[in-house]
Design goal:
The chain is of the alpha/beta class. The chain contains 14 helices and 12 strands. Helix 4 (about 85-95) runs parallel beside helix 5 (about 110-120) and helix 7 packs across helix 11.
Length: about 375
């Protein structure tokens, strides 16, 4: 279903339902509103304030106080609540959907909801969904129509769902500018457990480790910047969401953590033994593998578009750079002095909203004879 065949699609249904309007649900709803302004969007959320804001902004037409007959006739219903809640909502939806409805979710754990869909006899309707996009911020107020653009959107079809429904969902996700990828739900849970769930646990435990071992005057906290804040940024994510993810993908996460701990133990052994070869190999292989990864940000941990720049410590130095960029229509997301440059080159860090702005800013400042370091 694309914007080019909107008229043909209207004969089927233009009604789309959402259960939960947080960061991801709100962003998908806003994307649908952008590309399909004629679609009717209805939503249920436990927060009345969220529903009121969504109606006020024009994202949804109907705010539902419960999961009721309003959801009948929907072409798609997106389950966007916490993982454990999504499985519970399936039973409430069973009597409200017809054979044409595609029932989906956006959770980063798939096994539990697939098993529940099978137990309820909903496999002909259910296709798991996971847009691999996000933010350390949460809630509808932080949602954006472009959040899923150029992000991988994993689809995990049930065993009995038709090829027509799978193709329709693929086309629909692509029409929202996402990049649909089909995976088995079990494979999905192992992959996301490794590249998404494990990093969040590492970030959370690393932050807590610094908190627990900090000096009385909190000097670690005061000096933490640069690399430390970048690699722990995702620790600011929703505690409820990550609690639920760990509970629902526990078996995979436990296995992954076990293997990761073994790798940490190998690193400790190399440090203890002063093993020059092993230590060099540790950092060389990680550098090479990371450098081989694509620069585009299509994963759950979003790339930051930033450059670093050397400036002289003088009045108006930052203002001059900001003026140069603004006069060339380059918007700055964030700007600040780097006080701890153990991991960064350059005195000034400038962050942008997109890659093009970052690249153009670097070229422009170099033209003005600034020394620029690109990440």
């Amino acid at each position: 279903m694309t914007s080019s065949n909107t008229t043909a699609a209207s004969a089927v249904s233009h009604k789309i339902g959402f259960i939960g309007l947080g960061l991801i649900g709100g962003s998908i709803a806003k994307a649908i509103r952008r590309y399909y302004p004629e679609y009717e969007i209805i939503a249920f959320d436990k927060s009345r304030e969220t529903l009121a804001l969504a109606v006020q902004e024009g994202t949804i037409h109907t705010a539902c106080s419960s999961i009721d007959d309003n959801f009948k006739g929907c072409r798609y219903i997106f389950l966007c609540a916490p993982v454990s809640c999504n499985t519970a909502y399936l039973a409430q939806l069973k009597g409200l959907i017809d054979e044409n409805c595609i029932l989906t979710d956006v959770g980063s754990v798939k096994t539990s909801i697939h098993e529940e869909a099978a137990a309820l006899g909903l496999e002909e309707n259910f296709i798991g969904g996971h847009p691999m996009a996000g933010s350390e911020k949460s809630g509808f107020a932080s949602s954006k129509a472009h959040l899923i653009e150029n992000a991988y959107y994993i689809l995990t079809p049930s065993a009995k769902v038709s090829e027509d429904k799978i193709r329709a969902y693929q086309d629909f996700a692509a029409s929202l500018k996402a990049l649909p990828v089909i995976l088995d739900y079990r494979e999905h849970d192992f992959i996301t457990g490794t590249i998404s769930h494990l990093p969040h646990i590492i970030a959370a435990t690393l932050v807590n480790f610094v908190r627990d071992t900090d000096t009385k005057d909190e000097m670690m906290k005061a000096l933490a910047a640069g690399g430390f804040k970048d690699i722990t940024r995702i620790a600011s994510s929703s505690p409820v969401m990550w609690q639920q993810i760990c509970l629902k993908n526990g078996a995979n996460i436990s296995h992954i953590l076990e293997n990761y701990i073994k790798m940490l133990e190998k690193a400790k052994t190399a440090v203890d033994a002063g093993d020059e070869k092993a230590l060099y190999s540790l950092f060389e292989t990680s550098r090479d593998y990371r450098n081989s990864m694509p620069n585009s940000s299509a994963g759950p941990i979003k790339k930051q578009f930033a450059i670093y720049c050397d400036i002289i410590d003088e009045a108006g130095g930052i203002a001059t750079i900001a003026t140069i960029l603004a006069s060339n229509n380059i918007s700055i997301k964030n700007i600040g002095i780097i006080h701890n440059r153990e991991f960064e080159e350059g005195v000034l860090r400038i962050e942008f909203y997109d890659e093009n702005s970052s690249v153009n800013a670097a070229k422009l400042l170099q033209k003005y004879r600034y020394i620029v370091y690109e990440t």
